[in-house]
Amino acid sequence: MASIPATKAAISTLKIEQRVERDVKAGIPESDRNSHTESEESLRSYVTSEIIGRVHRERQAALDEQAERRGEAKIRQHYQELRNTGRTIHQRLANRFALLSREMEGAAATVSSTRMDLEIFRLRNGLTRDAEYRESRILHFSVIFFVVILETALNSFFLSKGSELGLVGGFFQAFIISLVNLGLAAFLAFTLRNLFHVSILRKSLFLCLFLGAAALTTLFVLGVGHYREALEADPFAASGLAVASLSGQPLGIRDFNSWIMVIVSGMAVMLLAAKFFLVDDRYPGYTAVTRRHREARRLWLQRCADAFREVGREAEETRREVSGREQEIRSEFIDFKASIERSEHIRRQYEEDIVKAQGLLDELIRHYQSHAERITNRRAAYFGKLLQVELEKLPKLNTAGLDQHREDLSCFERVIAGLDEEYAAAMEAISEKLESINGQINAAIERIEQDKGLSGV
């Protein structure tokens, strides 16, 4: 073994030749000697304390390391957790169900509230039909954006001839005109929608506003044409000339390009007003209250679907945990058993080390006596029994933990024997509890719908 040094190394370390020379000078070994010398006894002491002592420390450290690793095994804990899977999944899903029930109650209360608001709105305004509106506003607003850009591009061409900055100046002027048209179109759509209100007073008020907005829009569109015509006459006084011309002769536009601008702006305003009007229901406020109710209803249905998915995820997570515990039990059992075998091997190595240490001691004594014989040129009388390693004085390996772990191994082997059955029982408990909790969720949904009056909504 590498743990026992070679004979030459021990001879060099102990300086046996020097010991022999010293003993010879002191008259030792003397003729007919019948006992070991002090130097020979010191060889035994060296092998016992230094060689075997060091080997003992190394082997004991290795044993302690293996014992510590076995002590970290959690086979019993994992096995108990595996057996408690039914209780664990029951508690988890019960807690999850309680939380989901509160969330569904809140979502159902919101649906009930928005439905009440919708029914009250219909009753107050005499509505018996459903709201007609576009679910997605993206298409409508994209058309509005396209109209604004197209109107800006067309008008910028006509306004660029009279602008100091050319096409860039015409573009900014046309863009401002398009924004004004956009605002007028939005206001026209707002007033037009209010003409369908059930209140006569409100209808009358918004009819006046609509006519006023229409007249203002007409004047602005004609004013754009007058401004375009005035730009060619005098760009620096175009605004004043346009206002004066519009006041005196609103339809007195004599330039063909200016009339094209009027037509383009008028068509843009009408198209924008139509898009603003059609994006929501024609009755004011009907779209908003309907959207709130439908969104609450969507969230309620989503909450119900999420409830099933969440308990399913909880059950699946528990299944993964159970599978992980089962794999950990098997892995730790294999490591535990292998560690015991390594500890047994270490113990056997120590016993072999003692035998080799005895062989080393024999070699050292023979070398001592042989060297002494060569120096004195005579055979020493004492060639009896060589020194023996005193086994009773050697340090013992502490294997108390190993003995206990051998007993634990027998218990763990029984655990492994029944592990498949326990694993199957745990998975079955999860499936049964999941099926049970899904039934409870269905019952809760039906109860909430009946309590909140959501059946058939």
Quick one: overall form?
A: elongated
Helix count?
A: 13
Number of domains: 2
Provide the structure class: mainly alpha
SSE inventory with pairings:
Layout lengths: L6 H8 L1 H10 L12 H34 L3 H9 L1 H41 L12 H22 L7 H28 L5 H34 L4 H11 L7 H23 L7 H91 L23 H18 L1 H34 L5
Q: Can you put this structure into words, describing what you see?
A:
With about 450 residues, the chain is mainly α. It has two domains: about 5-85 and about 300-450, no CATH class; about 135-280, no CATH class. The protein has 13 helices and no strands. It has helices at about 5-15, 15-25, 40-70, 75-85, 85-125, 140-160, 165-195, 200-235, 240-250, 255-280, 285-375, 400-415, 420-450. α2 packs parallel to α11 and α7 packs across α10. The protein is elongated, with a radius of gyration of 51 Å. The mean pLDDT is about 80.
